[in-house]
Amino acid sequence: MERRAASAYRERFGEDPELVASAPGRLNLIGEHTDYNGGFVLPCAIDRRVAAAVGRSGNELYSANFEETKPLAGEREGSWADYPRGVLWALRAAGHEIPDFRAAFAGDVPLGSGLSSSAAIEAATALALDALFELGTGRKDLARLCQRAENEFVGVNSGIMDQYASLLCEAGTALLVDCRTLEAEPVPLELESAGLALLVCDTRLKRGLAKTGYNDRRTACERAAAALGVAELRDAAEEDLRRLSGEERRRARHVISENARVLDAAAALRAGDFAEFGRLMYASHRSLRDDYEVSTPELDAFVECARESEAPGARLTGAGFGGCAIALVESSRAEELERTVRNSFRDSGFREPAFYRFLPAAGAEVVR
Ligand code: GLA
Question: What is the reported pTM?
């Protein structure tokens, strides 16, 4: 991707870029809808990236994927250009004096599937500009700037998980993030030596309603926290649930139980206990399906197929409402599960799914 972005820059602008940075998409292993409740998440970076080639002259943005050039200056317009523009806006709003520049982008993170292509382009832009203009901003601060770009410029009220994963993950590991203190710690994810793989099923259901549903879930959590008199649901415990009812109770039950599962899952990974890790994945899915109500028949069907074929674990991943699900499978049985799921989807009249297999990859990096 880095080479593709550099050659796109050369073709489009007629000179070499000064540097190239790239950043990965992410897969969340467990810890869903916990980040904006001050809780815990456990994502890993995937070996699909967005690269940004940048230089100090000019003031244009070029996407090799969309074969489209956009002016650097501009308001939100609902296109890919919102992400780099948002990052520039956030850096300037934080007091950095950044002159105009130009950039070419190339990426292979699947779009709109819940694998965080948006965080990848934000992180690649932020890291490239940090290096180009020698800002000396730390990774964690860059992640927060990217989140601000997403929240305030792009207009999606997401938590910190995706940007953190893209900027801070390391190869061969998952990243345990405490979304309140923003402390992050790598946790070993040695799948290959355990004969395991992560099979990702993309339902290819674009998440039309996702934004509305996502923001609704957020406000229900805020109502639940207010009713309990705590700052965030992170501070609530299981016994508090008695004091809630209806929707707030179900949403809070998911968040409280999911936070506990993330910590247990990290402990299981450290101990190399993939059976326990998988059990927690299934429990997470049930909670997302029944209490948080963000699953779909397709995501449920995938998890059911995984269970029937005795995969150690499976769950929906990302925000839900479509997008992707993952299964932890024995590598030798991944293809068989893929076939089973394809047949089951065909029989149910679902759209044909896409499958990916990822290894936990490195986070964002600068290539001079
Ligand atoms: C989206 C958001 C994240 C997180 C997940 C749900 O991916 O961008 O911040 O809230 O949904 O876990």
Answer: 0.95
